[in-house]
Amino acid sequence: MIHQLIAAASWAPSAMNEQPCHFTVITDAELLDKISAQAKTWLLANLASMRNPALFRDLLRDEKFHLLYRAPALIVISAPIQGHWTTEDCALAAQNMMLAATSLGLGSCWIGFAQGWLNTPEARDLLDLSGQNLCVAPIVVGHPKAVLPAVPRKHPVITWLGSAHQTQPPRNGRQTQEQP
Fold this sequence. Notes:
- The chain has helices at 2-10, 29-45, 53-61, 86-103, 112-118, 121-126, and strands at 22-26, 73-80, 107-110, 133-142, 157-161, 174-178.
- It has 180 residues and is of the alpha+beta class.
């Protein structure tokens, strides 16, 4: 199934069709535990630079909280740092991967908390990653314990410039409205 996820990710569009993404797959439970513990330690040390640090302090100090949710697999998507569109290319690959996971009955989650630590020399050494790559998308994958209800979506705000699809007279040639 992991090969299917990576195949789906590899079909994501990329700038100039560079296809720069590198996939590092970690399935060793001890290594996943180590990544969780070290990333939590790094986050706590760098808490002051986070937005709303008080919100996360207790969670990160909780020994029972596993940063990777004890998922059986972590797939780290990275690409060359010097790539002009590295972040966007990896994000597109991650979305394809996560959609494919859902279609296979798997759960997935982008672990943003792990990104900072994964870009440290210590983490790069641990995962045998080149210092030339930026770790952008750490995605955990596994079988969900329960199916969660759909999250309510906000109505999109749409701005039309020009004459297509306008339902109300434009103000100065521009229109912004919420669509149900």
